[in-house]
């Protein structure tokens, strides 16, 4: 299972691979704020992929978890202490409660997750996992990365080169570091 931020939901939906993402982690959870951002706000702004995201929530591929009052207080404290948005801090609070991986494409959110002893995956990490587990071929993995970038996922050029290098080394290598 994983706790997922808006960016992986948005970009995997835009390339038609949201269900695939669910398959990698078996279960995805998020917060009400992420639901609002990925569905309500996105619909209002006419963003592509909204109907796929709505379907993922309605089918239970992604579940919305409510935070307790204590967890809400904790999220507010995290937001103030770390200088992050309350929505991001709520995701951290959920990941702490679930003791689970936080999946994001937000560098600061990832660093805060790591500071709280959580596992944190970049939005592209599931593709590297699938390569390592031989459930995606090298060409499928490269194609998926390319489609994510074309859909608007921000990846620095040097990071993209590193991702391709890891993917290309995946053939027969079970020691991929992600």
Polypeptide structure, described:
Helix 7 (107-115) links the parallel strand 4 (101-104) and strand 5. The protein folds into 2 domains: 2-122, Rossmann fold; 125-168, no CATH class. It contains 10 helices and 5 strands. The chain has helices at residues 6-14, 18-25, 32-44, 50-58, 69-82, 86-98, 107-115, 125-132, 138-150, 157-168; strands at 2-4, 28-30, 62-64, 101-104, 120-122. Strands 3-2-1-4-5 form a 5-stranded parallel beta sheet. The model is unreliable at 173-178 (pLDDT under 50). The chain has 178 residues and is α/β, with parallel strands linked by helices. Helix content is 61%, strand content 9%.
Mean residue pLDDT: 93
Q: Which stretches are low in confidence, meaning pLDDT under 50 for 5 or more residues running?
A: 173-178
- H/E element order: EHHEHHEHHEHEHHH
State the distance separating the first and last CA atoms. Answer: 17 Å
Structural class: alpha/beta
CATH superfamily of the largest domain: 5'-nuclease
The description of the largest β-sheet is:
5 strands, parallel
CATH class descriptor of the largest domain: Alpha Beta
